[in-house]
From TrEMBL:
One of its GO terms (molecular function) is DNA binding. It comes from Zea mays. This is NAC domain-containing protein 26. The keyword Ribonucleoprotein does not apply. Keywords: DNA-binding, Nucleus, Transcription, Transcription regulation. InterPro entries: NAC-dom, NAC_dom_sf. It comes from the Eukaryota. GO terms for biological process: regulation of DNA-templated transcription. Residues 1-143 form the NAC domain. The lineage of its organism: Eukaryota, Viridiplantae, Streptophyta, Embryophyta, Tracheophyta. Pfam families: NAM (PF02365).
């Protein structure tokens, strides 16, 4: 199994599932962040692992709640004070175990400075993970 496959599965099926269920996570390595009140270039200070003087990181992990664009709608508000996160491509499924049980989805987003539709694309990329469950029970198995 490729390492990235395992990492996605672990992020969703271990960390995210425990966080959503308000269960304790053994290592407190994933911070809570209000993603829409912080710019991507400020994430490093909020989500840094280790102390000052340690090697600079180029990947950070954090929990954030989705913010609805409209109170009664389903669209997600991904705007910050200086720009917005735009979804790119299709959501990718994340499977667990050899039975290929669907446990979550991964969405790729790119940060644009300014306001839609005239924002300027940046080099900031984020992967958003979410749990995927059947409304009538446990996660679905897929082949």
């Amino acid at each position: 199994m490729p390492p990235a496959y395992r990492a996605h599965e672990e992020l969703v099926d271990y960390y995210l599932r425990k966080k959503v269920a308000s269960r304790r996570i053994d290592l407190n390595v994933i911070k809570d962040v209000d993603l829409y009140k912080i710019e991507p270039w400020d994430l490093q200070d909020k989500c840094r692992l280790g102390g000052p003087g340690e090697e600079e990181q180029n990947e950070w992990y954090f929990f954030s709640h989705k913010d609805k664009k409209y109170p009664t709608g389903t669209r997600t508000n991904r705007a910050t004070a200086a720009g917005f996160w735009k979804a790119t491509g299709r959501d990718k499924p994340i499977y667990a175990n050899k039975q290929r049980q669907l446990v979550g989805m991964r969405k790729t987003l790119v940060y644009y400075k300014g306001r839609a539709p005239n924002g300027h694309k940046s080099d900031w990329i984020m992967h958003e993970y979410r749990l995927e469950t059947n409304e009538n029970g446990p996660p679905q198995a897929r082949s």
